[in-house]
Structure prediction request, 648 residues.
Amino acid sequence: MGCSSTKPHLAHVGHLAGHQYDVIVVGGGHAGTEAAAAAARVGAETLLITQKIHTIGALSCNPSLGGVGKGQLVKEVDALDGLCGRAGDWAGIHFSILNRRKGPAVWGPRAQLDRQRYRDFIQSELLSTPRLTVLEGSVEELLVTEPNPEEPGHHRVTGIRLANGSHAISARSVVLTTGTFLSGSLFVGQTTSPGGRIGDAPSSPGLSHTLRERLGLRTGRLRTGTPPRIVKDSVDLSLAKLHLPDSHPTPFSFLNTHTHCKPEEQLPCYLTFTTPGVERVVRESLQLNCHIQQDTKGPRYCPSIESRVLRFPGRSHQVWLEPEGVTSDLLYPQGLSMTMPPDIQLRLIREIPPMRRAEIHTPGYGVQYDFVCPTQLSPALQVKSTQGLFLAGQINGTTGYEEAAAQGLWAGANAARWALSMPTVTLSRTESYIGVLIDDLVSRGVTEPYRMFTSRAEFRTSLRPDNADLRLTPKGFEEVGCVSSVRYQESLRVRNSLQDALTALQALFLSTSSWKKKLPSVPISETKSTLLTGLDLLQYNDVTFEMLASAFPESLSSYMEFAQRLKIEAVYKPHCDLNKKEIERIQREENMSLPQDIDYFSLPVSLSDEVREILDRVRPSTLGAATRLEGITPAAVVNLLNYVRVTE
Ligand code: FAD
Prediction:
């Protein structure tokens, strides 16, 4: 673990004239950094172009990573050799597993981060990645071919043009990851100004123009916001409830056995609550707050304080006071995203007891931006009507670093494969949260900022944070090419050891009375079958692998490093066995592809006009994706299935 010190691959625009890249990634946020690194790992000569090199890997809002559903995404990005898990282990200053009272399938690994350390790690990784060059600049236009007369409406991307119109750089594929910058506007009180984030200009209008006017893509508008940053010394933390991290920090990355921050060096967070005064200030200032008056949809699950008090009047709302870094003088008040004028923001926070004398360092603000309706993308995150153009991150209507990173990795790997004339690859919702995320986006689209939850994954008992390596690392190495040989070899060692341990547990086949003698402290019910394996017994709440290993050291003690994983495997085995049939059905349907040029309106099968219209608009790439579309009836699916069978 650590920041590398290899010679940086920084380019100057003057050196790039006439150069052709395999992949150009536009944007150095969470999607762009994973996309660029993944494309380079797959073997593509890659250029990352971003507005400011020093903001690469910036955490625009909360300095934290992971959480329920989101932590699963971080583990999966890591299993595919992405950056964010290792960056989180390097930069984390407060680690906790959320949802610990529930089963391990829905545990949410989360860390509060040191902003500067996170950025440093990502920048140092990128600037030392082989085949990856970084260029500071703003992309103004996408270069695309005229539509192919044989395939009307179909373009091919050929590169980009930088702002000021002078430099064009060619590439076989381009990944756009412009975040909240596409036609971005910032809002504070009644003031609106162009911007993608505070201190950063929006993407040039030329980019939106290419997407909408040249390529004919449908776009929409969404919004989000961020809280004011508070001067730490001005807050009386003795009036808030202390919240300690886990005493043993759990690393995100499969490659790390420990985090950079020592357990005793972790910083606490604090919990406080809003008072009726907060609601009063919000209500009194509504007419001074442009952002909140607009119809544009904001993040439902991370709402502003204005939305919270208006939706739930009379309630007291949680506010977490979180450190921004080891040496930072600032606190991040999670739950207080707001867009009223700065003087009213100060009045509002001073209604909360620990902040009665607080000072604001930077006021909160809102941002509204364009997104591209993601049903126009294939499951490889390629724009269906433009060969070689891939989109990832907030531009697809999602919110959150983890959602962006997951899409970025997949789009970058596919952009590289496309550029190198290899078939693109997809991830199923039966094998990963990344698959769920992408399938939801491309099949159903978004009407509000999309964030991940464990409830979105129907097979969450199989898609656990603890087994992301088993599910994805072999595929990442063998099929995608984005995983290093070192990680792959280590994952094989772990997989084989786990399999051997499970076999050894199953080979311990004893009568209940023999088990009682071996483990006298465990209440084994006589009504259970008279013969039980070690694996059966490990499913008991009060049986640990350590207990079994001390009873049978000769067969089990060599697997002690996997004690927790084996316990979880044993507990979930019955659920996973039950899921197996359903997973196989979905995988069969996902292998049945629906040609992209079908004329759904003249398809000679019985489908209602409404169903034909939906299929024509979304153009699902497989039968499985069609079954999950809103408005598609079971009868329509059967008719489609018959059609696919006949044409296969
Ligand atoms: P970003 O991280 O925004 O990165 C985009 C990158 O593209 C930037 O580096 C930018 O400089 C670069 N770029 C843009 N246009 C060009 C161009 N034309 N040429 C070159 N480079 C370009 N998420 C939550 O989960 N909860 C929240 O409450 C929340 N609040 C937010 C509040 C604000 C004010 C902002 C700005 C973001 C908020 N987010 C929130 C969103 C979170 O920051 C994003 O989801 C995440 O950063 C998206 O990652 P991304 O890579 O898609 O885009």
In short: The chain is about 35% helix and 20% strand.
